[in-house]
């Protein structure tokens, strides 16, 4: 035995010597354990459930080659040969399969007044060479240099900083979301495709910022001198260049089997969808959502639900919520505008779907189905929980509607009583949700409620009202059934006005302070008048460049983009389904009050569609005059139409719209059928 022990001692190897490092996280150093230095949180801390306290300040004397992330040298013409910046009036194509082209607008369009500029259609600059790209300088005061230690060149790092400090919160819309402010930023530390996509979105945000000028006589006018790098064309071109790099890197990673996880693919899919929606390429966005839904469905089928929660369960839950909302958005878009294939998103993956019990993709269990009347909690502790329940309910309703449409196409339009009963069950669930949500709604004006929380509460209430209207009219044979919801249409308008006024007041205070010249109030001052949609200057105290006083409507609310839905879909329902002449015009005015893009939904497009439908239906009625008898005139049944199909180009602000009689199948004769181009 002793000999064996001695032999073992002789063959024992000493640990190989390695230089000591002091770059591990502070928590691991205190615990005296080896840190793997994963950023932003090391694996040891994550697995042990501890909070990673971060890393010590960088010291170049302690830097070792093993701690350096290898980066391929950037060629002098990086990104320009593989992703050339297009010349004026050429087509820019994305690198995604099947994506459509974005046709640049004429550069001269941007020279007009700020109110006529389309913030989502910035001009494409003339041809840029590598020398001109490298000579562009960005003012360090405009773009503070980030100290993030990421593999960026200076220009990319500046746009990343824009995303981190501004874009991430803007994309969340009316809700706080850690997906943008935490998950995406963490993933960008290790994935080049996500990193480039984040930079691209930061550049788009700067594009939007530059084309949205401040109201006249604002303390921070946009006509001040700017550097050559701080211009809309420069930001726009750089955004497309980075987007092309992001797609290329993701393709390379997939083909070389270098993708770390499905999570990386899904987050990239969200970012690509966001970019496509931002620039107005709704077709590519819809296809990208469908691809992401397919990846999630495959992932869920391949894995079984464990008894103990795995580390990535929280991540999957977060991505599941994100794709649930994007699926609802894409499906609502299809329900409103009736796109032809292949631009119709499919939520149902069951080859033999059952209207009696439609499945839910937000249910991460394999092979399970969602109950139609899933129990609604007795209370919502916060707006986040209320939103999760409403999202899940809306998703099941969208799936049910999808299968209902399929049933109508193969049947004689006679639905079994059981199917109708199941549909009305959704209405009861929505009613119960509103009852549970009522305390939060009532407290939205309570002290301590933040502006973002108040806006989120309003948006959830508007969404629930809209969904209830659509559920209860799903079986309607004509448009007259919408008249019973006039009080609900009025409620949607009032909630939207409340949100917009809050937003306008907050921005006016933030940008102009108490000395804002766009709102005149006080004794003896009668020149200005605040409206729910901005500031109407009836006789501006400050003359314009031509010496004349302005008579236009100004708003501190700049054009905006968010990936989440907000107030546009509910207002669109009022604009197209309410035949109360006052409410309809009010909804259209609210849509045009500020240019918003919520995912694929564009406020100006929806206002244009609503205005045309209104004009078609009101032919033969007296001209509308507020407060007079014409306001009470009702559109007769034989004049009412609905949107049947639409093709459009958001970048060119043009659409071809077709309307017709509700219930008439495609191909059958329709005496009310109309078709017209719409521009805005």
UniProtKB/TrEMBL annotation:
Residues 11-21 have a biased composition (Basic residues). Residues 1-22, 212-232, 352-376 are annotated as: Disordered. It holds the Pfam family Zn_clus. InterPro entries: Transcr_Regulatory_Proteins (IPR052360), Zn2-C6_fun-type_DNA-bd_sf (IPR036864), Zn2Cys6_DnaBD (IPR001138). GO terms for molecular function: DNA binding; DNA-binding transcription factor activity, RNA polymerase II-specific; zinc ion binding. The keyword Lipoprotein does not apply. PROSITE patterns: ZN2_CY6_FUNGAL_1, ZN2_CY6_FUNGAL_2. Residues 1-10, 220-231 have a biased composition (Polar residues). Keywords: DNA-binding, Metal-binding, Nucleus, Transcription, Transcription regulation, Zinc. The keyword RNA-binding does not apply. Residues 362-371 have a biased composition (Low complexity). Residues 24-52 form the Zn(2)-C6 fungal-type domain. This is Zn(2)-C6 fungal-type domain-containing protein. It comes from Botrytis porri.
